[in-house]
Amino acid sequence: LGLEKADRDVMEQKPIKKGESLFARGMALEMIAGGVLIGTVSLIAYFIGLNSGSQQLGRTMCFLVLSVSQLFHSLNIHSRKSIFKSSVFKNPYLIISFIVCVALQLAVVVVPFFATLFGSVPLNTKQWMIILFFSIFPLIFAEIYKLLINKCNNN
């Protein structure tokens, strides 16, 4: 994120006051809400896995949702603009690191050596879809939040 070029409208934004906290302008609340949301969907995935099979399945699903949702969240927190209107996809370092991290997360479950090392179990298609949905859910929620905030600010 630190290597990314500034948005085109950066000069139209209000300047940050000297000494203003990084957590000002609602950022602390947004960070807490994001953490609570990611934690909640991770726990839901755990209980779905626990009720569908075993504690190991629950742990595997929870681990994947927790880690992959944070990767999607890295795309989201980069700007107060919608992910579709920001320059996040123009940052090759972020995209490459996102892909590499997702591949590493998949390796923990798919590659037998890593699965044994991490105590993860194989997943079926339905479980992968649940993980994908819960991993993307915080991003969807944040996009809706940004849409509402931007509409309120424009009015």
Report on this model:
The chain has helices at 27-52, 55-76, 92-110, 112-118, 125-154. It is mainly α and 155 residues long. It has one domain (26-154). The mean pLDDT is 84.
What is this structure's SSE topology?
Blueprint: H1 27-52, H2 55-76, H3 92-110, H4 112-118, H5 125-154
Helix pairs in contact: 1-2, 1-5, 2-3, 2-5, 3-4
Comma- or semicolon-separated keywords:
single chain, 155 residues, mainly alpha, elongated
Give the helix proportion (percent range).
Answer: 55-70%
Low-confidence stretches: none
Give the amount of beta strand, in percent.
Answer: under 5%
| C-alpha Rg (nearest Å) | 18 Å
Briefly say what this structure is.
This protein has helices spanning 27-52, 55-76, 92-110, 112-118, 125-154. It has 155 residues and is mostly helical.
